[in-house]
Amino acid sequence: MVLGTLLVALLQWSGSQVDRIARERDQATAKTVVAQSVEQMSHGLEVGASSRALLGQLSGGDPDLEWLDVFAERWFTDYAGLAETYLLSPEGAPLYAIRGNARVAAHSYIGIEQYAAPLAEQMRAATIRNRTQNDGSSTRTPVVADLRFLRGRPAILSVKPVLAGQASDGERVGAVPMVVGVAYLDGSFFERLAQHYGLADMRYQSGPRTGPGETSAPLRDRSSQVMGYLVWRAFAPGQQVVSALGPVSMLLVLVVASVVFFLASRLTRRTRDLAESRSEAHYQALHDPLTGLANRMMFEAWLDEALERCEQGPEGAGHLALLCIDLDRFKLINDTLGHPAGDELIRQVAARLRAEVRDYDMVARMAGDEFAIAICEPEDRAAVEGICARIIEQLARPFDLFGARAYIGGSIGVALAPDDSRERTELTRRVDIALTTAKAEGRGRYLFFTPAMDAKIRAREELVQALRHAVHEDPAQLHVHYQPMYCARTGAIRAVEALLRWEHPERGFIGPGTFIPQAEESGLIEALGNFVLRRALEDARAWPDVRVSVNISPSQMRCTDFVTRVRDLLEESGVAPQRLELEMTETALMASSRDVRRTIAALRELEVACALDDFGTGYSSLSHIRDMAVDRIKVDKSFVAAISTPQGAGLVEAIVSVARVHGMAVTAEGVETPMQLAFLRDLGCHELQGFLLSHPVCAENLSALLAESRAGQGPALQWAGSDGWAI
After folding, report:
1. Which of 22-31, 161-170, 453-462, 568-577 has the least mean pLDDT?
2. 315: confidence class by pLDDT, cuts 50, 70, 90
3. CB-based burial of residue 199 (10 Å sphere; 0-12 exposed, 13-18 middle, 19+ buried)?
4. Do residues 590 and 618 lie in contact, with contact meaning Cβ atoms separated by under 8 Å?
5. DSSP string of 170-217?
6. 3-state DSSP assignment of residue 231
7. Strand, coil or helix: what is 366?
8. How many other CB atoms sit within 10 Å of the CB of residue 46?
């Protein structure tokens, strides 16, 4: 709009400047035309006044009036354009007068005599000077002309001597006839100016005032006195251009303004949409889309600022409490009720968490079913404990998920700043340690971080790193020992169970109960299982009549190439497949039964035996024996230790009976007393294994035991009288 306004203003200014220049040109033209009219009249008078015939008529004293009528009308009226012509005698008396084309009385000269007489005197004086100084070669004399107001109208009054050359002998120097001409500045004069110079509607007026669209020029005589003003309709090309271009310009301005407004509106809308999109993107980047809580990025930034304020405060606990919350059994809800129900559960949990804290405390969803709460300036540790207890209580309440009631729970880890740490990463690590410890101790509880937890985690991590080093870089630390399994009937060694031992260069021997769980958690169990299987098959080549039993981890059973690996190791070692028995736990079998069934079926095609280890400690369902195509079950040592009680003895008897019905061999583990040995042998167990018979030994010592067993020098199971069986 500003540009349009400037354009219109420029157009108006340009038009006004053009009109000003046109007015100045017209004023100059009017002055020039008046001067040219005087000059033209003088020239016309000079042509007529140069006639010797006219001189003769006027000098004789009795002119021929009819001749003068023809001459004056031809040369003065028509040619010179005079409105009135007066012919004066050499003495200055009027001899003839004509107005237009009609002769009038000569004495009518009296009406202009007062204006013409001074000019005639000037003309006579000029004539005298001219005739005195002239050599006679020329008869031209000047014309005296001026503007006068005659008969109520402005007019050009001019005086010219007739053929005024050098005076002849006997002629008075100043005695010459004169021609007095009058040309009025009237309608015909103005029409001629309009026709030839474009000065339309010209008129004479006494004052300079003009009407709309008119301009004027002063009319001055020879003495520069203003006689009046010539007024005419001004030629205004600028205004005409403005009038012609104005509507087009305004239309153009409106079109451009409309286009600019449209584009500006779209730009404004785009800018607003972009700002909203940026705001929405910023919100989405910092908030969880499901719950509207802060996400990890926003929570960490907020926690950094809070810890910075905490660092500037005095020493001591209570400035900030960080809670890490993990839901229990959330995956079960997703699997049973579906993901929409899981999403609704997360939303309800978020609402309950927000209700338990203050508005200025920060609640965030970190990932999946993990939440975090930062409590600013808690009153004391007891206040934090109260919040944790209420959260545990709220999470234990039922959730209504689309008409279904769901029960979950939660575990909470708590760390305090600045007591536990003033740095976000370390504080977060410690609260995660507290959460992990809470979940490991039974879930549904909260625990505050303690240095002992950190020490335990660090020790476990150091153990894992040392075990990883032993597996991948220094396998000499790993040893395979073998515990014999004796025939319950003959007492001969029928089989050996390969057991892994770890001898750390600094810590010494580390028990399997210490490092096997860490290997399972860290993913090293598969590498350890493969190591034991390879070493056991290599050692088994020295014992051709002994079955080798190797424990297999669930992760090994899930590998698609496990059967192929077993086949390759058997071919590499040269051990018959019938001499290899793979032990797997009941829990591992049930966790992925379909895949395990396929693996067991493939192993049986290789003629590799399969045993169910620690039977009864997993799913504790005797019907699983029917579903699993295994060759042997091993009674767990916890059941063997309980056979001194009627309930324990009955349970072991039931296991052996079920196995016998299904045609499976039974091996009893953990035999440590003669009474247990006698009971199990009498019950019908096929093989016995335990410290009573032999501890696990290295491969060299096992070879010696086997040699003694073959020579009949090993431990023999015999009847010890009425007291039972004895070794």
Report:
1. 161-170
2. low
3. buried
4. yes
5. T--TT---EEEEEEE-SHHHHHHHHHHH--EEEEEESS----TTEEEE
6. strand
7. strand
8. 19
Total residue length of the chain:
727
pLDDT for 303: 92
| Per-residue CA distances from 435 to 371, 377, 450 (Å) | 11, 22, 11
| CA-only gyration radius of the chain, Å | 67
Mind giving me the DSSP string for 286-330? Answer: HB-TTT--B-HHHHHHHHHHHHHHHHHS-SSS-SEEEEEEEEESH
- DSSP for 441-452, written as a single string: TTSS-EEE--HH
CA 413 to chain centroid, in Å, comes to 38
For residues 166 and 135, is the Cβ–Cβ distance under 8 A?
yes
Query: Residue 555's closest CA among 524, 577, 517?
Result: 524
CA distance 573 to 76: 153
pLDDT of residue 168: 46
Mean confidence (pLDDT) of the chain: 83
Following DSSP, what letter does each residue of 491-506 receive, concatenated?
--EEEEEEEEEEEETT
Residues 6+ apart with CB under 8 A from 407: 329, 396, 398, 399
For residues 40 and 719, the model is more confident at 40
Beta bridge partners of 231: 203, 216
Q: CA of 445: how far to CAs of 15, 312, 326, 329, 393, in Å?
A: 92, 33, 10, 14, 10
Please state, as a whole number, how many other Cβ atoms lie within 10 Å of the Cβ of residue 127. 23
Which pTM does this prediction carry? Answer: 0.57
The phi and psi torsions of 126 (rounded to 5 degrees) equal -65, -35
Give the count of alpha carbons within 13 A of 123, CB side only.
31
Instruction: Give the tens place of pLDDT for each residue, 547-557.
Output: 999 998 888 88
Range scoring the smallest mean pLDDT among 135-144, 374-383, 464-473, 631-640: 135-144
Whether the link from the prior residue into 418 is cis, omega within 30° of 0, is yes
Nearest C-alpha neighbor of 204 from the set 225, 218, 224, 192: 218
Positive or negative: CA dihedral 461, 467, 473, 474: positive
The full DSSP string for 639-700 is: HHHTTTSHHHHHHHHHHHHHHHHTT-EEEE----SHHHHHHHHHHT-SEE-STTT---B-HH
Distance (Å, whole) CA 184 – CA 182 = 6
Among candidates 205, 133, 161, 204, which has minimal Cα distance to 45? 161
Q: What is the pLDDT of residue 715?
A: 55
Quote the CA–CA distance of 604 and 507 in Å, as a whole number: 41
CB 204 within 8 A of CB 153: yes
